[in-house]
Amino acid sequence: MIDARKLDHILISLKKDVASKTKNGFEDVALVHRALPEIDREEIDLSATFFGRRISAPVLIAGMTGGHEKAKKINENLAIAAQELNIPMGVGSQRAGIENEKLAYTYSIAREAAPDAFLIANLGAVQLSKGYGIKEARKAIDMIGANALAVHLNPLHEAIQPEGETDFKGCIRGIEKLSNIGVPIIAKETGAGIAREEAVLLEKAGVAGIDVGGLGGTSFSAVEYYRKKAGKGKLFWDWGIPTAISTVECAESTKLQVIATGGIRNGIEVAKALALGASACGIALPLLRRAVKSSREVAAELQRIIEELKTATFLVGAANVAELKNSDVVITGKMKEWLESRGIDCKKFANRRMIKWK
């Protein structure tokens, strides 16, 4: 049963260490400090445009759950925080609500609690190869009054999950068919990252954005390992492309809005992601753990991250998000090795202001 599986995922994520053992890559990224920022921290503007909507900060609540009665309160608390802070929010895969209308309320509560927030519906790409199309996508959108639709790409999770569906043939064609549905389509990985080759294919298919969902955050292989004690779940615990690397690959190869999700835990990492080309950053597990308690705790965690982002923005001498995205970044270590082996010049990130200075 889908709803039982959804509950398993929630409980395991809350009780077990399901984090990737591989870091998300931002440890190899350094923002260049400015001893003379020449700005007032209190005047920094963190507002950003997110698929045509003005939001208060380039941070969003990543899609996590739904499809079980215990998920209702979680989505409600997340949505209350999204409404209060004027930031976007996604919900988890809505297949359960589409196939069993009695579970739709576990998702629709998000719109009830956040009447003005930018909400992101969620369908699995693999379902597009099994008959899902415009009808089901429209149901998902209407279920929460969504402003965008995420199509999640989770081949790793499906391959590890005992009940997984691994026939991904036709997914890109299915995504193409959704491109004119009336809301932006966001291609979203769920923990293993997106390489530039897929990013280019997705751009051609008509998506408006990419959520890299990179390695470094929650590992669904780990979740499945605890759920079924599947040996291959342990083996593939750290499979994928780290978030920071995936962010650069997608941003450098397309003109799409890129969302960096995957192990983002503080405002410095958000700042680094934005400087690498992301338009926003998604936060998941830390908010899930607070959402089981209260919306107040969710909002407090998000406010902490946003305040840290503001300080990092101040320390690189940026007055707003646009200037932050053009700040100097030094890439070293394994990330540099990866990017340069893929033909991406890391020096250009480190010398943006030098070019202007000359």
Task: Tell me what you see in this structure.
By secondary structure, the protein is α/β, with parallel strands linked by helices. The protein has one domain (2-357): TIM Barrel (Alpha-Beta Barrel). It has 19 helices and 12 strands. Strand 10, helix 13 (267-275) and strand 11 (280-283) form a beta-alpha-beta unit. Helix 2 packs across helix 15, helix 13 crosses helix 15 (295-315) and helix 14 (285-291) packs antiparallel against helix 15 (295-315).
The CATH architecture can be given as Alpha-Beta Barrel
- What is the CA-CA span between the terminal residues? 63 Å
- Can you list the strand order of the major beta sheet? 4-11-10-9-8-7-6-5
- Return residue spans where pLDDT drops below 50 for at least 5 consecutive residues: none
Helix content: 40-55%
What does the main sheet amount to? 8 strands, parallel
Strand content: 5-15%
Helical segment tally? 19
Overall pLDDT score? 94
State the CATH topology: TIM Barrel
**CATH homologous superfamily?**
Aldolase class I
C-alpha Rg (nearest Å)? 19 Å
Name of the top-level CATH class:
Alpha Beta
Q: Count the strands?
A: 12
Number of domains: 1
Silhouette: globular
